[in-house]
Amino acid sequence: MGDYRQAYDRSLRDPEGFWRDAAEAIDWDVPPGRILDDSAAPLYHWFPGARLNTCHNALDRHVAAGRGDQPALIHDSPVTGSVRTYTYAELRDRVALFAGALRRLGVERGDRVVIYMAMVPEAVVAMLACARLGAVHSVVFGGFGAPELAARIDDARPRVIVASSCGVEAARVVGYKSLLDRAIDLAEHKPRHCVILQRPQLLADLVPGRDLTWDDAVDGAEPAGCVPVAATDPLYILYTSGTTGRPKGVVRDNGGHAVALRWSMSAIYACGPGDVFWAASDVGWVVGHSYIVYAPLLTGATTVLYEGKPVGTPDAGAFWRVAAQHRVNVMFTAPTAIRAVKKEDPDGGLIGGYDLSALRLLFLAGERLDPQTYAWAGERLGVPVIDNWWQTETGWPIAASPRGLEALPTRPGTPSVPVPGYRVRVVDPDGAEVPPGEDGAIVIGLPLPPGCLPTLWGDDERYRRDYLSAFPGNYLTGDGGRFDADGYLYVMGRTDDVINVAGHRLSTGAMEEVLAAHPAVAECAVIGVSDPLKGQAPRGFVVLKAGAGAEPERLAAELVAMVRDRIGPVAAFRRVDVVPGLPKTRSGKILRRTMRGIADGTPVPVPSTIEDPAVLDALRPILTGRPLIALAQDDQRPSETPDASRT
Ligand code: COA
Ligand code: AMP
Hints:
Blueprint: H1 2-13, H2 15-22, E1 36-37, E2 45-46, E3 51-52, H3 54-67, E4 71-77, E5 82-87, H4 88-104, E6 112-116, H5 121-133, E7 136-139, H6 146-156, E8 160-164, E9 166-168, E10 173-175, H7 176-186, E11 193-197, E12 211-213, H8 214-218, E13 229-230, E14 234-240, E15 248-253, H9 255-267, E16 276-279, H10 286-299, E17 302-306, H11 318-325, E18 330-333, H12 335-344, E19 361-364, H13 371-381, E20 385-387, E21 399-400, E22 417-418, E23 423-427, E24 440-445, H14 460-468, E25 474-483, E26 489-494, E27 498-501, E28 504-507, H15 508-516, E29 521-531, E30 535-544, H16 552-566, E31 575-578, H17 592-600, H18 613-624
Parallel strand pairs: 4-17, 6-7, 6-8, 8-11, 11-12, 16-17, 16-18, 18-19, 19-20, 30-31
Antiparallel strand pairs: 1-2, 3-13, 4-5, 9-10, 14-15, 21-22, 23-24, 24-25, 25-26, 27-28, 29-30
């Protein structure tokens, strides 16, 4: 482990020197003097006193350096039948104009702007326009329903919301504007203006005085320049699921983010200026923020924005068509997407129809990469497949084989080794480090490297409580796993109630809150069970109130509809069973982990504190067999693939 080991050791021994060097790849208005501010530890800030503009670093400086005619963004949209390329100069001009439009609507440095859009170039333009003004964007994934959007509006309190009239899914057009209107009705905070991108697939009605079209917003606007901001100023807020229904607003700063992402592109993704990088994700998720938008553009690479699915748009060859057509050098997606392709094209026969000679590497992240998917992709594509583990909170990989530093051999079932900057440890419940081969909680010694969250939006206390208090001096990742004797990290799954459905992070707690709101429900539990395609799928269990008299099938249908409406279709909540009781400890805690183990066929010991074992016994056939009420259109039996299971 030559170059990697050297870099890793230095990053921990001399973090300030390490990141001072990395900061040289960024243009600063005021260059960093001090590197790390630890005066408010355990809250840390990187590059205090330095000033920069992230949009300048992503666009203007590349134009100034002669990359104006190079493609910056390729929008490939099989769902609308269009492909469109924007050069760096063109993207800069569009961003400057939209920044001017936002300014005309009163958006200034520090103001929040919520973005609720499909995978359209205007979403990227809106994000970068906020960065240009020093405003703070908060992108909300289009698959979330109105109440989830309302919760984010109330927390971020945006001055302006930018939305597209609709999203175009493979099978249907989703009206975003009607969801937005409902969300604004539900929210206490009301934005002054909404800028609506009218897409021809579904035009939106506008609210006079509040709403204006994108075209009207930019008409006659004065292009805005880049506003220098403090490195520690927020660039964006991205909400993610925690254990409760209240989403957490992960904050990203400007300076640490630019430094870390630029460094990661070279050191981890082995991607440089002029390369074509494609992250097949969504701008609503952290992978989209970091590796569709910011990292490739900070690098001077070309990024691909793909508005389509791995299958069905039009077939399981879609990814290979895009990779070939745009001469993609480095590709990044979620294992679930590869599983979807493999299901439809098991032999990978469609791959042969495309020229993938430009493709060097495939990175997979967002959920555990099961060994079968790892092997299938490697064999069929003939390029190294690199698992990388990270989270919304960190914004870039915690563990990976850092291909730009050294081509460490990859192994199935592990995202390889800790990335420089991350002091990764596996600890027991008392916080003591466990030996290789033993499972424990995965924590990261403070300070986290640049680019990771400095706090939660407006809630330092929740940040301390949720992440920093379990093992003082360490950040709690919420994942469990182990190291092997060679220092490879095995990340086995969440130790909390967060689940991962098709690469989408969701809270079972939030789904339980929805079920509990039904008048006939006395108590409920939602667990994530193994699913061969999506990794995990949620399953609900409800106990009826005495005398509720609800007809189970109708009730189940109502509950499924409620979760779809309140959380969104992305929750893929399709199964709920009416059960006589839920297994609990004597102190009343529902044994969700035990239920999950039984459902997955990976039994965990039943705690001795169980209140009434007969309740669990009554539930076993429902957990392992077919549910009493199965509402899924694509009904699947509980998985038999142990690789997709969670601890
Ligand atoms: N806007 C509106 N609705 C959306 C949406 C969006 N941006 N994204 C998903 N949805 C809807 C879908 O239409 C679907 O609705 P339905 O219940 O009416 O069919 C539902 O949410 C679930 O969508 P999805 O999770 O995409 O499931 P799927 O069965 O349509 O497709 C996969 C399965 C595996 C192909 C798909 O989930 C996928 O491509 N996953 C990769 C995820 C990813 O890139 N994650 C980012 C981490 S890197
Ligand atoms: P998100 O915040 O949506 O990126 O989800 C982060 C969570 O996804 C992590 O805490 C892990 O549970 C899971 N995850 C992401 N990448 C991986 C990976 N490569 N291996 C295992 N789990 C992963």
